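RECORD CONTENTS
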Amino acid sequence: MTVTAPLVVHVVPMRRRHLRSVLRIEAQVYPRPWSHSLFLSELALRGSRAYFVARVGRDLVGYAGIMLAGDDAHVTTIAVDPAHHREKIGTRLLLVLTREALARGARNMTLEVRLSNRGAQDLYRRFGFAPVGVRKNYYQETHEDALVMWVHEIDTPDYGALLAAVERTVPGETYYEERRR
């Protein structure tokens, strides 16, 4: 029986230098990946967007982003390298996105997820997201519908307790570098 060392993950703000690795993962997990120029345009919108990458050692293993508008934060993307699925990378990234949303004054969060992606839906439910509707043919490249999910009142002590409980389920260590404002 082999014993593996606890995973150490560093979550840092996404920078241009990360885009080659981000695009590699993007191409593996999405039928119609975002382009280099789309990521660049998102990174340029620092006032209303926040993007992060997760690294294990020198390897970039996941990334995620949010768009902020008023009291709401919209999860624009979250992806994990398939070689690192089931290591709670997505959980770590969603924790960081939620904390960033809170730091920027959001009270609610929303996202769309493929109806077929049960694993992602389970992750979002652990964070309190609940389905509110379906967007027909949202993923045009596969003609798949999206489940729209929301979580409200993320700025309350009860939600803070939920985040703390989720964080306790994450093994290993997570180091987080804050975005420069």
